[in-house]
Amino acid sequence: VLDPDPDSPAGELATDHVCADYTDHTALEYIAKTCDAVSTEFENVPAATLAWLADKCVVRPGAKAVSISQNRILEKSFLRDQGIPTAKFAIVHSAVDIDAAIKTTDTPAILKVARFGYDGKGQIRVNSTEETHAALQAMNNEPCVLEQLLDLQCEVSVVIARGYDGSMMTYPVAENRHHHGILDISIVPARVSAAIQATASEMAKVIAAKLEYIGVMAVEFFVLEGNALVVNEIAPRPHNSGHYTLDACVTSQFEQQVRTLCGLPFGDTRLLSPVVMVNLLGDVWPHDHAPAWERILSHPQIKLHLYGKRKARKGRKMGHYNVLATSLDEAIQLAQKVQTSLSRDN
User: Fold this and answer.
1) For a FRET experiment, which of 131, 182, 286, 330 has its CA 20 to 30 Å from that of 60?
2) What is the pLDDT of residues 292-309, one digit of tens each?
3) For the CA atoms of 237, 253, 316, 336, what is the dihedral angle to 10 degrees?
């Protein structure tokens, strides 16, 4: 594991934790000499790093796909060029682009920083030209995308695996609810029509193929009035909304990532049970003490997953739990009951 964090949870489990920056040449030389294949679980690894490693060993996903999906300007432009529907958007390189951008998107809109924005970070809602100028200053005048604010019915996502031979396999569509820009719960199967689910899966396949992607990735969608579907963003990695697969599918998204890396056949993505995944943020750690885990573990149909992060912070993903039940309604009710009980301590 190459991770600059000295407290890396993955590093603690690894045989060898290389604690260095993703651009450290000595570290990359070591990785190239000691690893048969390299994969990523974090989209902000520099694409140049992946390209350099690809000359020495197998790298999946490749630099091209990651470079597009880690930059909102490149990502939106790529989707537009492929004829994939998105919200109206305009590129803002500097303040001089704002007037023209607003003519394209109108307001209200959302200004999103092109790089390193996730979990609601680097996004500001704007309602006027003046607010857009202020938002760009708040983003340190970094390149941004101004995106039309849409009236959503719901949000869904598709986790898809693509092999080196171009074969593809999708997981059941997840319905996602967010709180303050961070994924709160995923409901599977999604409570949308079969037609929407089929369209989302097919669009995800088109995107993966056009990216020449190898590995597991996720595509997030907005469902609009009239059941129109537009792409929100691409995540070039196993995804938070796919964490339900750990317990509710024959093959988890993480095992699938390993299979694509090794050139093995896909594992079955079949859903074994209705499931609700609930994120555990640092917000539910009362006074830096662990939550009362018995409120989760006392339920035999709930599976708890903790990530081994040392410090709980507000908004930081510390773990999740999957609620499995014979019906989706039962899973939703139990998930919400446990979530409420954990929140009472804060």
Assistant:
1) 182
2) 999 999 999 999 999 999
3) 140
